[in-house]
């Protein structure tokens, strides 16, 4: 058995964490790592203490906002960053692994938090029917390294794709 590299471990963990999401529409997971250590994880869903969309609205999910996104959801990236900051963990210089490319709002938070690298598994633009990944474009414009994660690294791509 070969030893997986940390990138593979973190992306596979993000894909598994996405399965914790209560969102009816899309499951997204994120792992925040620094110096080969996981510093935070997150998945998309409503704020803690509110209700879970799959329980409150099991067939339709929560209402959409004016842009067609969930009105209650905190994105996986936001949850990972918020949890780290809440626990006084320094995210400056960290790397984010996320199952869906960051939207523009998340990209602003990622940049402002000092995260230096982002690896994403699937395109947000393709999921939302947009012409480009605005969040990826924003991050690259301001010097954050962003890469679409190549699935050739994984031995069992079909199993991983089935997670999200």
TrEMBL record:
Pfam families the record matches: dCMP_cyt_deam_1 (PF00383)
Gene3D superfamilies: Cytidine Deaminase, domain 2
UniProt keyword list: Hydrolase, Metal-binding, Zinc
Hydrolase in keyword set: yes
Cofactor(s) annotated in UniProt: Zn(2+)
Record domain CMP/dCMP-type deaminase: where: 5-137
Transmembrane segments: none
InterPro entries per the UniProt record, alphabetical: APOBEC/CMP_deaminase_Zn-bd, CMP_dCMP_dom, Cytidine_deaminase-like, dCMP_deaminase, dCMP_deaminase-rel, Deoxycytidylate_deaminase_dom
Record-stated family: Belongs to the cytidine and deoxycytidylate deaminase family.
Name the record gives this protein: Cytidine deaminase
Organism: Persicobacter psychrovividus
């Amino acid at each position: 058995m070969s030893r997986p590299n940390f990138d593979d471990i973190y992306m596979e963990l993000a894909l598994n964490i996405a399965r914790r999401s209560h969102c009816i529409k899309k499951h997204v997971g994120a792992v925040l790592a620094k110096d080969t250590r996981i510093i935070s994880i997150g998945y998309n869903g409503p704020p803690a203490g509110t209700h879970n969309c799959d329980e409150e609205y099991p067939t339709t999910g929560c209402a959409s906002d004016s842009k067609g996104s969930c009105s209650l959801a905190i994105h996986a990236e936001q949850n990972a960053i918020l949890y780290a900051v809440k626990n006084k963990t320094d995210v400056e210089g960290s790397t984010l692994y996320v199952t869906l490319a960051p939207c523009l709002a998340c990209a602003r938070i990622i940049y402002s938090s000092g995260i230096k690298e982002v690896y994403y598994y699937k395109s947000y633009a393709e999921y939302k029917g947009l012409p480009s990944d605005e969040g990826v474009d924003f991050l690259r414009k301001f010097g954050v390294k962003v890469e679409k994660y190549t699935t050739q690294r994984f031995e069992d791509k079909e199993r991983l794709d089935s997670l999200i």
